[in-house]
Amino acid sequence: MNSVKSLWAMVQGDPVFMRRVNGWLTVAWLVMIPISYANGWLNSVTYVSALSLWALVSGHWSAWQAARVEVRQEEEAQRRDEEDLPAAVAEKVAEVIPESRDGNADDGVAAAAAPRSARCTCQ
Predict the structure, then answer these.
(1) Torsion on CA atoms 37, 41, 42, 47, rounded to nearest 10
(2) DSSP secondary structure, 54-95, as one string
(3) Helix (H, G, I), strand (E, B) or coil at 44
(4) Cβ neighbours for 18, distance < 8 A, ≥ 6 positions apart
(5) Has this prediction a pTM greater than 0.70?
(6) I need a labelling partner for 38 at 20 to 30 A (CA). Which of 7, 53, 95, 120 fits?
(7) In angstroms, rounded to a whole number, what is the distance separating the alpha carbons of residues 80 and 101?
(8) Tens-digit pLDDT profile for residues 60-107
(9) Virtual CA dihedral for 30, 36, 38, 42, nearest 10 degrees?
(10) What is the DSSP letter of 103?
(11) Rg of the Cα trace of the chain?
(12) How far is 19 from 100, CA to CA, in rounded Å?
C-alpha cells in the first residue's frame, strides 16, 4: 500500500507527466465518441451513467489540481513579499564598494561625474 501511495505522490508531483496523461485521456475519449455512437452505446443507461461519473470525477480533479497550483503560487508570492530584496542588494553593494579613510563610501563615481572645473586642482 505504501508503494501505491509513493507512486501516487510522485505522479502528482510531476506536472509534465500529468499533462501527458490528461492529454492522452482526452484523445482517448474523443476517439470513443464515434465508436460509442456506431455501437449504439449511447442508448445504454449504464454507459451514459459511467460516462457522466467519469466527467464528474475528472472535472473535480481538474479543479482540485488548479486550486493546488493557485495555493502554491500564493505561498510563493507571499514568500517573495516577505523577502527584503532592496536591503539585501544594499548590503551586497556595501560589501563590494570600498570605504575611504574618512569612513564614507568611495565617491569615485560622483567625482568623475562632476564638471571639470570642480575636479581640477591645477591652479
Answers:
(1) -140
(2) HHHHHHHHHHHHHHHHHHHHHHHHHHHHHS-HHHHHHHHHHH
(3) coil
(4) 11, 12, 65
(5) no
(6) 53
(7) 38
(8) 988 888 888 888 889 998 888 888 778 878 888 888 887 655 555 555
(9) -130
(10) S
(11) 32
(12) 58
Residue at 55: amino acid letter? A
Helix (H, G, I), strand (E, B) or coil at 113: helix
**Grid cell for residue 97:** 564598494
How far is 21 from 10, CA to CA, in rounded Å? 14
* Whether 97 contacts 106, CB under 8 Å: yes
The residue to which cell 564598494 is assigned: 97
Per-residue pLDDT at 119 = 53
Residue length of the chain: 123
| Rounded Cα distance, 85 and 73, in Å | 19
Listed residue (17, 58, 67, 22) closest to 9, CA to CA: 17
